[in-house]
């Protein structure tokens, strides 16, 4: 994690990552710093850092999550369905695809946002290889090739997860800049300020 820039740890099931995606990109562009995209296995992160998966939380916490999502959707003028038809399915294949394409040096910004949007805005099952193939094709990517490459990224997926935990990450999205952790899309302004105060070396 010694490369300069924003180390972006996120779950491919994260509604909050979707809400923060465009603002993160804008900050990185304006500040002239790269984003290092690192999908993580959030259930594993939770299991090792004391987190609780949404379905296991109290009704009060689940209800407040919906309230907060609605507030942020109004604030950002974005749409998210708090309870989509396919909510938080197995995100492994989607994560491995993003990692494989990123490792190849290809842009993943629009791809990972399209996968998040499919779940949280379009009621699609992002665990379905057929759906993911369609998203790949819509982004001019060879679906057969990348679906074959994805399983080879399992070790890198675990490495991202281990790196996140070592950096203090316990939720998604999380951003680490020069060793400082910012959890949640509601901390993006603070991330922006940190970059302004401590610009990355050229």
TrEMBL record:
Catalytic activity: 2-hydroxychromene-2-carboxylate = (3E)-4-(2-hydroxyphenyl)-2-oxobut-3-enoate
EC number: 5.99.1.4
InterPro entries, A to Z: DSBA-like_thioredoxin_dom (IPR001853), GST_Kappa/NadH (IPR051924), HCCAis_GSTk (IPR014440), NahD-like (IPR044087), Thioredoxin-like_sf (IPR036249)
GO MF assignments: isomerase activity
Broad enzyme group: isomerase
SUPFAM superfamilies documented for this protein: Thioredoxin-like
Family stated for the protein in its record: Belongs to the GST superfamily. NadH family.
Domain DSBA-like thioredoxin: 7-195
Protein name: 2-hydroxychromene-2-carboxylate isomerase
Biological source species: Alcaligenes aquatilis
């Amino acid at each position: 994690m010694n490369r300069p820039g924003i180390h972006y740890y996120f779950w491919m099931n994260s509604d909050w990552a979707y809400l923060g995606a465009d603002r993160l990109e804008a900050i990185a562009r304006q500040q002239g710093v790269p984003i290092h995209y690192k999908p993580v296995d959030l259930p594993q992160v939770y299991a090792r850092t004391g987190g609780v998966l949404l379905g296991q939380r109290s009704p009060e916490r689940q209800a407040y999550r919906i309230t907060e999502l609605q507030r942020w959707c109004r604030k950002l003028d974005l749409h998210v369905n708090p309870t989509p038809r396919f909510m938080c399915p197995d995100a492994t294949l989607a994560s491995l695809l993003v990692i494989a394409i990123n490792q190849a040096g290809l842009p993943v910004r629009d791809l990972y946002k399209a996968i998040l949007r499919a779940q949280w805005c379009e009621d699609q099952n992002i665990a379905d290889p057929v759906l993911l193939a369609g998203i790949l094709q819509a982004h001019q990517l060879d679906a057969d090739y990348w679906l074959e490459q994805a399983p080879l990224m399992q070790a890198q997926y675990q490495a991202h997860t281990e790196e996140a935990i070592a950096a203090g990450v316990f939720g998604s999205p999380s951003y680490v800049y020069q060793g400082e952790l910012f959890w949640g899309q509601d901390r993006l302004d603070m991330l922006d300020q940190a970059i302004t105060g401590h610009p990355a070396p050229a």
